[in-house]
Amino acid sequence: MRRKQKQSENIGHIMIPKVISIGFFGGLIWSMVASFTAFFNFTTVSPKSFVLRSWLDAKWTDQWIGQFVSILIISIISILFALLYYLFGKKIQGVWVGIIVGIGIWFLLFGLFEPLFPNIPIFYQLNSDTVVTTLCICILYAVFISYSVSFSYAQQLHDEKTS
To answer: pTM for the complete prediction?
Structure first.
């Protein structure tokens, strides 16, 4: 019993930095993809639409620096999401959980949290390109986080058992 508890503590100490980096880079990569899709007019919303433009009306928020700051803020928030996934979903393998979580994230952003983002239209007022693009980005983001965390956890368990 004592050995199993010590093994669990070792996995936690090793996994937390991995989970933090997975969360940060997941937020960085997928918010950059969202920025590019907004730049190329695949979507009418971008990271700065959520993070800065909903609360600030300063001129700099509509420029590249606003997009950069928004990407960094999303990357930091993404660390919290990855840590939550590590706490509650690390043992779940496969991409289906990520797909479901991604759809849930999309509904949270465009449905439930819509009053927090007055700069974003209500989801039924969005054009189809925006809906499809943002839904796909949310799904890909959640699959990236969920699969990376669960894969790293399974790999760490395997390494602990073989050593």
So the answer is: 0.90
